[in-house]
Input
Amino acid sequence: MSKPLGHEEFFASLTTLLTSTSQKTRGSVYLTQKPLLPTSTDQTSTTISPPSILIRATDGNTNAPNPKSASEDKNIKKKSKESKAKLSTVVQPDELETFYAKYAEVCKAGMTGLKKRDRKQKKAKGKGGAGKVSKA
Amino acid sequence: MPSSPYLPTSAAFLKESSLLLQAYPDSTLITTKYTFPSSKPSSKSSKPSTKSDSTATATTPLATLVLKTYNPVSGICLKYKTNKAAEVGRLITALGLLAGGADISLLDVAVPAAGTAGGEEDGAVVTPTTGGAAASMGAGSNTGAGVSKGKGKGKGKKGKK
Output
């Protein structure tokens, strides 16, 4: 298990992971979050403070090239060993807000494969508006 | 366990998720999956070169975002699926609030502040009880109507297919 990264490092790597996946239009990125429970020694001191949040990101090896096609391309074959991306970071309770603000930005920027509302919106509006005008 | 259904709206998902997190704050895991539809390897392998990719990009596969809140202790799993880029920011911010242990009342206040959509929180606020799926669904349908009103017909699947 790799050590948790700093936030900036995590975001940088996550951006790369998301954009590369989006560009390939193939594969997946899995983001998980769960409370990081104190170790058993700490449990005696029942502090009220909420636990830190552990954030993980991985591509689940879905960006690995197809093994059949990889055998034909040496470059891809070389990359396949290290292709599984795993990132993690720990967020302290008091950092949650700032972290998630950035997190949301990174995800928004990186997940370009999703349906974009803006373009459709403009088109729909244009058509609708024109239609209404002509009817009126 | 029964197969976990997709909740109809993000508001319903976040509401149910916050309830699950409140019930099991220590053991609940939230997963966000950003995924492209998988191409069948068998069909691709018949065409040896990567040129088959160019034909695939012509159609531009649309990614989907699946949010999943899972609690292994109770076996409860909640899911929400979307393919709208506009929802990402709002959802992630909401996940942050969930992670911080925000309860529903806080969530209702905070979500609209984070996002641009206006209709959603109204429905959620109207149902102050620990509302079940029915209440949430009601709120959701309102949301859908509100959004589609504002954004035109682009929201439905009609435009795509």
